[in-house]
Every structure is written in structure tokens, then in C-alpha cells.
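Slide 14.
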Amino acid sequence: MADVMLDLERLQATRQGLSAALAEFKEAAKINDGLERAIARPDDRSALRDKASDFESAWNGKRGTLEENLQNIYDQLSSIVDGWEEWDTQTAADIDASRDTSTTNVRAV
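Slide 15: predicted structure.
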């Protein structure tokens, strides 16, 4: 059986970074919603606002897809981290229980 080497701290840090990125994407959607209102109509012209609107419309779909992909990666990474932590905790408990049994058997002899 091949050894499995995982850097749990790095995986946890990556998960934390993905969580922060997801939060930023959600916040960006709120911020960009007010962009057109903030631009208004400088010099009674709407060209800049129209460009911002076009950009926002194109970016919304891409942001949604990217956010969905990031969420999927986050979910998969969380599954790996949580599974590894659970396995590690259970294995440590099994080893401790095995040591306790071995110590008890040695004393009984």
C-alpha cells in the first residue's frame, strides 16, 4: 500500500482562502449593483453608464459560473479535510486503545 502524504495545514489554509474568495464574490455582486447609479449621467451623457451596464451584464454571468465552480472546489476540499481529520482522530483513538490493551495484558502476566 502506498503512503498518503497530506499537508493538512496547507489544505486548511487553502479552504480558508477559498471561503474568503467566495465571500468576496458575493460582496462584489452587491457592490456592482450600485455602479450604474453611482456613475449617473456626467455632463448629461449616458455613454459611461451604458458601458458600465454592458460590462456588468457580461460579468454577472461569468461571476455566477466562477462562483459556482469555486463553491464546488470548496465543497470537495472540505470533504477531504473533514474526512482526513475524522480518520486521523479515529486512528489516534484506536492506537491509544491498543496501547492501553497492550499495557493491561503485560501487567496481567
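Speaker note: Residues 16-108 form one domain.
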